[in-house]
C-alpha cells in the first residue's frame, strides 16, 4: 500500500515534491483497485442471485445466448467475463486500470442507437445537415456519398457523380445542397430533395446493441447483401464541379454564408472558390506536404488547413485587402484535422497521438494537450458543451473536455461499436435521438446518444 511504500522510502534520494506526487498517484491507484474489486464482488453476487433464480427455469447465464428484455443488461456481465475482467485488471498497467474503471460508468451515458449500413467500402467522413430535414451524410471510398434518415437508418439519396473515392461531405448552411471532395481531383456541389420516412413507433432504440456480430450487415435490410443503398434515389450529375487541383481533393467546406467554398488537396494547396461561378478566387500555398483537412469558422471568414508537414495554418479573409496566414507548429507528425470551436479556439488532432487546444490570440503554444495511445483522425467539437470527440486508429472513440479531461469512451465490443479504424466524428447537438455520429473502415456509420448532462456531472 502507499503507506508501506512511504515507510520504506523515508531515506529516498527523490526530492520531497516528487515523492509526494508519487504517493498521491499510488493512493489513487489503490482506490481504483479497491473500487473495481468491490464492484466486481457486487456484480458476482448479483450474477449468483440471478443464476439461482434462473436455475429453477433450467437456464443459467454463461455468456452464451442471452434472453431479451431486462435480463439482457444484467446478463451482459456474465460470470466468465467477470473472472476474465478480474484477471486482466490485476495484470494491467495503471492507465489500463483507470480506463477500465472509467468505462464501467460510460455505458449508460453513451448508448449506441443506430447503425447506418450500405456502403461497399470504408467511410471517410460523416456530417449532419444544418437545415430541415436533418439528414446524415456519409462519404465513402466506394466512390459514393449517401444521405440517411437518422431515425430509421434508411438510405434516402445516393450521389454517384464522382469517379474516385469520396473523401468528405459538408452540408450548405441554409439550402439542401451538399459539397463533396474526391480522389478524382474535383469537389462537387449537388442539390438533393429527400422525403423522410416515418419512424416505426415499435422500433426499439437499442435494438442494435444486442444483435450478434454479422460483418457489414443490418437486420433491417431485407436483401441480405449489406447494401442498404441499392433502392434509394440516385443523383448522377452535380450542379457545379470545382476543378483546378492537380491531386486528390481530401476535404472541402463552405465559408460562412455558403457563397464560397474551400478545398484541400494532396497537391499541397487549398483553393477558395466562388460557388455561383465555380471560379477560383484564391490558391492558398505554403504547406510543404499534402493537405489532410480544411475547416471553416461558423461565423467569420476564417479557414484552417492541416497537413502532413506537421503544421496547420489559419487563413484570414475577413479583410478583403489583406489575407494573413498564421502557422501553428506543435505536432510531431501529420495533423489529421484542425477545427474551430466557440470563441477563439482551434482544436487540432494528429498521428502523433495528441490533440491540442489553441487560443487564436496566442499561437505559440497550446492551452491544453491531450495525450492518447493511438493516432487521432477527424475530430469534432460539440460547440454548446465544448466536448471533443476523438476517433482513433485503434477503433476507439473517446470524449474529452476543452481542458483535456477525459469524460468517457464509447462502448466497443464484438457486439457493438466499430470493428476497424474510426475515421471521423460529428456532433448533432439538437437532435433528440442521436447527438453524435462516427464512421469508419468497417463500412458503417453509427449514431450515438450521449447523455451530456450526466457526462458533465460525472466529471
Strand content: 25-35%
The number of distinct β-strands equals: 29
Task: Give a quick account of the main beta sheet: strands, pairing sense, barrel closure.
Answer: 5 strands, mixed
The end-to-end distance, rounded to whole angstroms, is: 27 Å
Cα-atom Rg, whole angstroms? 24 Å
Give me the number of helical elements.
6
Shape: globular
Mean pLDDT: 83
The level of helicity is: 10-25%
Poorly predicted parts? 61-105, 202-226
Helix/sheet category: alpha+beta
Oligomeric nature of the chains = single chain
Strand order of the largest sheet: 2-3-4-5-9
Organism: Apteryx owenii
Subcellular location: Cytoplasm; Nucleus
Keywords: Coiled coil, Cytoplasm, Nucleus, Repeat, WD repeat
Protein name: WD repeat-containing protein 37
Question: Concise description?
Answer:
The protein is α+β, with helices and mostly antiparallel strands and 459 residues long. Helices cover 19% and strands 34% of the residues.
Q: Would you mind describing this structure in some detail?
A:
The chain contains six helices and 29 strands. α1 (2-8) packs antiparallel against α2 and α2 packs across α5. β11 (249-254) and β12 form a beta hairpin. It has a five-stranded mixed sheet with strand order 2-3-4-5-9, with no helix packed on it. The protein is an alpha+beta fold and 459 residues long.
Amino acid at each position: 500500500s502507499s503507506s508501506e511504500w512511504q515507510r520504506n522510502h523515508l531515506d529516498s534520494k527523490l526530492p520531497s515534491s516528487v515523492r509526494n506526487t508519487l504517493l498521491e498517484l499510488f493512493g489513487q491507484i489503490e482506490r481504483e483497485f479497491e473500487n473495481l474489486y468491490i464492484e466486481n464482488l457486487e456484480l458476482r453476487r448479483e450474477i449468483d442471485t440471478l443464476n439461482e433464480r434462473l436455475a429453477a427455469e433450467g437456464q443459467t447465464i454463461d455468456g452464451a445466448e442471452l434472453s431479451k428484455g431486462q435480463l439482457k443488461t444484467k446478463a451482459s456481465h456474465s460470470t466468465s467475463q467477470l473472472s476474465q475482467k478480474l484477471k486482466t485488471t490485476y495484470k494491467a498497467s495503471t492507465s489500463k486500470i483507470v480506463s477500465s474503471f472509467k468505462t464501467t460508468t460510460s455505458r449508460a451515458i453513451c448508448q449506441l442507437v443506430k447503425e447506418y449500413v450500405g456502403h461497399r467500402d470504408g467511410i471517410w467522413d460523416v456530417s449532419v445537415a444544418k437545415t430541415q430535414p436533418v439528414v446524415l451524410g456519409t462519404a465513402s471510398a466506394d466512390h459514393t456519398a449517401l444521405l440517411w434518415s437518422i431515425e430509421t437508418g434508411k438510405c434516402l439519396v445516393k450521389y454517384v457523380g464522382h469517379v474516385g473515392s469520396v473523401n468528405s461531405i459538408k452540408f450548405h448552411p441554409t439550402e439542401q445542397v451538399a459539397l463533396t471532395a474526391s480522389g478524382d481531383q474535383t469537389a462537387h456541389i449537388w442539390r438533393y430533395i429527400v422525403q423522410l420516412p416515418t419512424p416505426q413507433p415499435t422500433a426499439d432504440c437499442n435494438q442494435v446493441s444486442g444483435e450478434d456480430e454479422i460483418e457489414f450487415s443490418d437486420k433491417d435490410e431485407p436483401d441480405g447483401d449489406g447494401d442498404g443503398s441499392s433502392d434509394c434515389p440516385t443523383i448522377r450529375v452535380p450542379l457545379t464541379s470545382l476543378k483546378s487541383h492537380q491531386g486528390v481533393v481530401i476535404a472541402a467546406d463552405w465559408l460562412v454564408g455558403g457563397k464560397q467554398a474551400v478545398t484541400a488537396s494532396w497537391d499541397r494547396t487549398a483553393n477558395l472558390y466562388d460557388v455561383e461561378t465555380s471560379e477560383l478566387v484564391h490558391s492558398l500555398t505554403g504547406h510543404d506536404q499534402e493537405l489532410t483537412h480544411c475547416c471553416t469558422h461558423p461565423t467569420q471568414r476564417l479557414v484552417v488547413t492541416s497537413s502532413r508537414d506537421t503544421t496547420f495554418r489559419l487563413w484570414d479573409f475577413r479583410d478583403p485587402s489583406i489575407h494573413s496566414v498564421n502557422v501553428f507548429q506543435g505536432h510531431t507528425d501529420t495533423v489529421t484535422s484542425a477545427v474551430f470551436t466557440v470563441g477563439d479556439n482551434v482544436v487540432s488532432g494528429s498521428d502523433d497521438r495528441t490533440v491540442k487546444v489553441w487560443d487564436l490570440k496566442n499561437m505559440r503554444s497550446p492551452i491544453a494537450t491531450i495525450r492518447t495511445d493511438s493516432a487521432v483522425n477527424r475530430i469534432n467539437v460539440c460547440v454548446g458543451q465544448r466536448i471533443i470527440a476523438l476517433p482513433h486508429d485503434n477503433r476507439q472513440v473517446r470524449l474529452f473536455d476543452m481542458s483535456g479531461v477525459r469524460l468517457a469512451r464509447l462502448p466497443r465490443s464484438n457486439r457493438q461499436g466499430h470493428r476497424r479504424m474510426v475515421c471521423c466524428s460529428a456532433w448533432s447537438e439538437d437532435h433528440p435521438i442521436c447527438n453524435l455520429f462516427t464512421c469508419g473502415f468497417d463500412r458503417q456509420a453509427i449514431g450515438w446518444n450521449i447523455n451530456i448532462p450526466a457526462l458533465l456531472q460525472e466529471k
